[in-house]
Amino acid sequence: MALTKDRNTPFREGDLVSHPVAAAKKIYAGALVVLNATGYAEPGSTATTLKAVGRAEVFADNSTGLDGAVSVSIRRGAFKYKNHTDAVTRADIGNSCYIVDDETVAKTNGTSTRSAAGKVIDLDTDGVWVEIR
């Protein structure tokens, strides 16, 4: 039902979130983190069903647990990841880049085998700055 009076809507910045980790997964601090098709966090990898959610703030080990047995703290923002041989260039600033693994991004979706990581916002000689929101 639509509002008919003022509402004190709860608020948070949204830059730091926590997600339950998928079964049998380890996520290292600094890793590009994704949500899999069932909504659990795991390290970035080459797959088409993943949603990038940010960078792991801490190590999370769910290698022996079931889905959601542990959670991982994730920061959203802009992060520098390694550039793949399918390299992002300065001409790609403003375009999407794609997940290769939990520390590497590529220019293309690898013939529809990679999920989007986020938007390229800058490029250094040692990496690609990716905004993940």
Can you characterise this structure?
The chain is mostly beta strands and 133 residues long. It has 2 domains: 16-75, no CATH class; 77-132, no CATH class. 0% of the residues lie in helices and 45% in strands. The chain contains no helices and 12 strands. It has strands at 16-20, 25-27, 32-35, 41-43, 51-56, 60-62, 71-75, 77-83, 96-101, 104-106, 116-124, 127-132. The strands form 3 sheets. The protein has a 5-stranded antiparallel sheet with strand order 1-7-5-3-4, with no helix packed on it. Strand 3 and strand 4 form a beta hairpin. The chain is globular, with a radius of gyration of 16 Å.
What are the SSEs and their pairings?
Layout: E1 16-20, E2 25-27, E3 32-35, E4 41-43, E5 51-56, E6 60-62, E7 71-75, E8 77-83, E9 96-101, E10 104-106, E11 116-124, E12 127-132
Parallel strand pairs: 8-10
Antiparallel strand pairs: 1-7, 2-6, 3-4, 3-5, 5-7, 8-12, 9-10, 9-11, 11-12
